[in-house]
Amino acid sequence: MFPSTDPYLPDLAASMGRPAKLRRLVASLLLVFALIAGLVVNHAPTASADSPTADTTSGASPTGACYQLYPASPSNVRATLLSPYSIRLTWTDNSCNEDVFRLYDNGLYVGTVNANVTYATFNVQRYSTHCYSVVAVRGMWYTSSPAYASCVQAR
Length: 155
What we know:
Layout: H1 18-41, E1 75-83, E2 86-92, E3 100-105, E4 108-114, E5 119-123, E6 129-130, E7 132-138, E8 142-143, E9 147-148, E10 152-153
Antiparallel strand pairs: 1-2, 2-5, 3-4, 3-7, 6-10, 7-8, 7-9
């Protein structure tokens, strides 16, 4: 292979070993990050003599720390007709680390409420059917499975 005559382009023959070194470096870094993440995620609280009722379902420890990566799904989602033009959506917050709850109506995003808020009220058109779902969200990437409410028809 001929050396490059352009001073801004690297010599290809001299850089042949770089991709392999870069791949090894990236693989090593990914392994380190995976090990660190595994230590943090798998460090869930357990019951002990000091705290026989440690909450392992929500990920909260007796000290208030939360060790879950993904937020837990909400439960008991209910849509209640308040008037012919208004529906109230309520749910139980089962997560210890959500930032917001995303709300969906018939599969379409309709809004967001802050963490630890467990209701929302919607103005709707009369004689329309609404099937709501709620998703707990942490950060930009971590979401719970959706929790669904039974459908309600505004009359």
